[in-house]
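Hi,

I'm pasting everything inline rather than attaching a file, because the server keeps stripping attachments. The sequence lines come first, and each chain or strand is labelled.
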Amino acid sequence: MSSEALKKRKAKVLRNEAGPTEVKRGRGDGDQQCAEVEQKRLQSCNHFMTLKKLNRLAHMRLKRGRDQTHEAKQKVDVLHLQLQNLLYEVLHLQKEISKCLEFKSKHEEIDLVSEEEFYKDAPQEISRPQLTKNDPHQLTLARLDWELEQRKRLAETYKESQASKEKIQKSIEIKKEHLRSLQPGLNAIMQASLPVQEYLAVPVEQTQKHTEIAQHLPPPLYVLFVQANAYGQACDKKLTVSISGDVDEAKAMSKPPEDSQDDDSDSDAEEEQEKTKRRRSTAGGQLDDKRREMLKRHPLSLSFDLTCKDGSVLSLYFYYLINLNIMTVKAKISASTDLTTAISAGYLVKSETLLSCLYSNDHGTETPNPANRYQFDKVGIGSFADYVEELGHPYKWVQNLGGLNFPSDTSEVRGVLVGSSLSASHMENTMKLLRGRVMSRLALHKQFASLEHNIIPVTSECLYLFPAKILSRLTQWTTITQEEYMNLTFTRHVTDAGLAKETDMYFSGVVERGTARLQAAVVLNPRYPEISPLFSLSLNWKGERSGHTDDNLRAMESEVNVFKNELQGPRPGYQLLTNQISRLCVCLDVYLETEEQDDGVEGPREFPREKMCLRTVKGPNRLKPFKYNHPLGLFSHR
Amino acid sequence: MGPVELLHMSVFSQSFSPCGRFLAAGNNYGEIAIFSLCAALSPDTSEAGRKPVLTFSAHDGPVFCLESFGGHLLSAGDGSVSAWNWAELIKKNVKAVWTRRPEYKASMEIPEINAMVINPRDNSVVFGGGDNNVHILDLEHGVFKSVFRGHTDYVHCLSVREREGEVLSGSEDGAVRIWDTRTSQCVHCVEVHKYQKCARPQFGKWISCLTTDSDWMLCGGGPSLSLWHLRSLTPTSVFALSGCQRRATFYQDMILAVGQGPTVSHCLLGGQVKAQIPCTPNNINSLELNTNSAEHQVLTVAGSSQFVDVFTNVSYRAFSLCF
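And the predicted assembly:
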């Protein structure tokens, strides 16, 4: 094509060339020129032909080269492909290998017994030591076999034990049924045996009931109950303990702590409070409620009955105040004799003051629990003393008996016991003191009855302390209040020394002989006769004298107050007061009889000398002989 | 000593230690208490400083007299006299150095010793007591060398007239006897109650208070307290004090007298009662002046109370020591 195009162009060009050239040289040289042109044309045609040939050769060469390249490329591709395949395969195999290596067979999770045990325990067929010792694979297989064997055996034993357990369970059920059916029968027997118990005085039923109720007692009362029972059984047959009060209320009391955790009941309570708030708008009413709530007593209480030697019974009622965590007591005496005869003695057996100061300084008017102070401040209670009459006295010994130990203000270092050991350590002593207190009060009561009739009751064991003839007489014996006592002029020194306290009882006695009148003011400590009564004297005879002004009256006071150990009388010492009064009469006799005769005054002596004295005056302050020596009947000086 | 015993305590005698820093006081229970004056007088003292540093039981009966002589404290009361070493007592070592008893006639009661004075001239101690006699104990030899008999009732008080070497004794029988120590004879006998000026029959005739300073003598008791001139044996002034006096002493140019009544009376030699200073005890048995120490010059007064009043200035009571 191109050659054809070339040809055509050549032809054109030739024509064109031929044309112009023809034109130029037209006519003349035309022939020569035509030969040259023919030559040139032939030359050009040859050139064209070679050109084409060359072109063709070039093309063919190109083609051949391309084909060769293509072939080589094909070969290389094939090889490349093969390489790829192989590499892929290698990779695949590697992965497989690693997978195989990582493979953990389940058998490795099983805890097999150790090899030694295996060889020991397994029977020969399974362990096959010859094979397995060399070949670990076989060894493992053998061990797995053994494991399987063992498990099969154990599964069997398990089935067997299950079966036996079922059997036993069934038999237990049967027996339980049997026992349950016994219970009503036993109850019937208990009921039937009650009359027999009473007849034989073996209160088994009662103690059981008590123990059951005792479960509902608050802890301090429980401790007291247990200790008192134990003490009563062991040492003191005359102590009886019983529980009184509302058991149901007590049971109800122990429930509420669970309910209060519910939100519902809280909101209910709030609603109720609001309602009551609306009803009573006064803060005072609310405060009253809070106070009452704070001072609430536990519904159960203990009552003790202490029987004394002469048949009188001291009844003690113990209460527990829940919110304040203290115990209180109320006391009552039921005497074997009539207690209404002595007027001045009413104070002695009054239940409020009966147990005052059983131990020294234990007044029982304030609560011993220091925490109560804060509680009281919240509800505006000034002092517990106002509620003592209603709630009972919170004596310290009562807290000790209940096992409650409160730290006291004074830093006494006592052994810190709590609970039942504290109660037990105090029980015996307290019971003794209580008995002693009752007996001394009753004895005093009897003595007062006779003192009011101006008879000094001196028992026969104490007659030796006094001479046979005593001329001074007791003419009056009355109670006075503490204020009256403190207003007397001759008692100032006792009050100043702090020996006249609120808890003490005060009496005034008058001894007379002739024109002489001796007034004695007596301070009686509740712990009589451990602490002796204190006498202060004032004599009205030819002028007023008292222990302050007259050394002899002071000596008489000390004769009665200080040298009182001889006057205690037989063991319990309840005769102390009457003996002191007798001694006072004797001393007045001596005083009056040994008074010097004033030479300036005429007339006989008012009081003739009847007592025998060795010397009527002795010492720098010229004291009279007040000491009576028993068998000789003489008076001498101390 | 419970509170009741303290309430009924009477102090009968006092004596200062030779160094003047301690006071010994004897009470009716037979105890002697040693008080430290330094502790009591120091400005920052507390309650404890006014309490005894040592209390011990010396006799069975009341301790009626205490005297300090030669480093020893002599105490007498229930018929015997004991001596205690002051240095040992200050160290709280209680042990009597010696105890003596005058010879008494056998009787039912052992007579008490009411009065004791030291006679420094011949190193002896003079006792007067319940057996109506005056006994002299020689300190060097420790024996009773003489007895003066003559009184008809027990001897209340004694005094020594140093210059003449005479002993004066006042007794319950109303007589003041003057004895010569060398001849053991009664040189004079004055019955005070026979003199109209002094006699007070409503009280009685006994003489419980006697003191001399060689020319003059003060005596009193049942009769009024009176000042006598010894050479003429006549009463020159009589003091109008209401109670019966138990102790009197010359102090500077005054007379201090104590006895019944809770006061220390200051009287002038002419007979006027200048002042009456109130004290704690209701009746006073003993009055002592501390002359042994310059810095603790105090007057102490004790009687029917457990308190011993201390006067740093004789015009008023400063504080009280308490048994």
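The longest strand of chain B covers residues 113-119.

If the labels don't parse on your end, tell me and I'll reformat.
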